[in-house]
Amino acid sequence: MKIGELANRSGLTPSRIRFYERIGLLKAVDRKANGYRSYPAEAVTILGLIALAQGAGFSLDEIRALLPADLEHWEHDALAGALTRKVADIETLQARLARSKAHLLHVIDEIEARPDDIDCATNARRVLTRLLGEDAEMPVASLRAKQF
Amino acid sequence: MKIGELANRSGLTPSRIRFYERIGLLKAVDRKANGYRSYPAEAVTILGLIALAQGAGFSLDEIRALLPADLEHWEHDALAGALTRKVADIETLQARLARSKAHLLHVIDEIEARPDDIDCATNARRVLTRLLGEDAEMPVASLRAKQF
DNA sequence: CCTGACATTCAAGTTAACTTTAAGGTCAAG
DNA sequence: CTTGACCTTAAAGTTAACTTGAATGTCAGG
């Protein structure tokens, strides 16, 4: 199978597949006489797995550390541990998101529920004072460091 | 107030504050005779708001579009709309995370609950087959495009 | 007067995960 | 024999949000 067909079957682009090879996530495959890469059918499965793991929040580095050379020879304990830790990561993120959401809803409430008898500027001051006095959270965005 | 003091009070670094000015998130402030930036007390509030918004998942671009020149003159409707949309974004992410988590737990189950009478390789094939046959999700990581 | 803690600017580096571009081979079909 | 769809490589570009580095200026204290 040439790289274009593999790309079609796996849903990844050729450039992405070559990139994975370059960074050592995929081992270099055989070449035909003309230099074209020639993939075994198994490659579709491997790429599918990579995409799946990415979808679950694993970074390419993490995936590289877990993907066995032989698809039937997983490092059971490392894999189970990584999966469990990833679940914990997700739970952390869920908790953080819940707090962000609650916070946002609270702010929406504050700005919508302005008493009729005070003007916008006064209300703005009131909202601002409350907002900055409350909890200062860690940025949700900082989670990108952990692949979310 | 010089930039160092503002940095201390706001918890941001001086380089970050200069960066915000460079990209137009903060308007340029007055300079002392020696060229040093001189900030009004209000700047602490503004930086606090920026950090707060970032914590809630807003990108700097979004924040720039929402932050009024005058802190007491918010564009009420734009702000309320943006907050509401951000809550919706968070809900989308929550749903996605829930699915990822369920998926991971399912995989952990599959690899742990291997029947005693089949070997690792066979189990690996069984797990792989199920895994790749199921749903292929969008990567959680793709949410970074929306600031999470 | 010197030292050290500040301040300034501009350019370049960082991270992840790719894509894009450029310049060029290969090959089946018409 | 030429077109067009593929394939190859290496290098550079992308995005967000900063940081780091280099070269230099300012200023209060001892």
From TrEMBL, chains A, B:
Domain of life of the organism encoding this protein: Bacteria
SUPFAM superfamilies per the UniProt record, alphabetical: Putative DNA-binding domain (SSF46955)
SMART domains linked: HTH_MERR (SM00422)
Transmembrane segments: none
Molecular functions per Gene Ontology: DNA binding; DNA-binding transcription factor activity
Domain HTH merR-type: 1-69
Record's keyword terms, sorted: DNA-binding, Transcription, Transcription regulation
Entries under InterPro entries matching the protein: DNA-bd_dom_put_sf (IPR009061), MerR-type_HTH_dom (IPR000551), MerR_fam (IPR047057)
Protein name per UniProt: MerR family transcriptional regulator
Organism whose genome encodes this protein: Gluconacetobacter liquefaciens
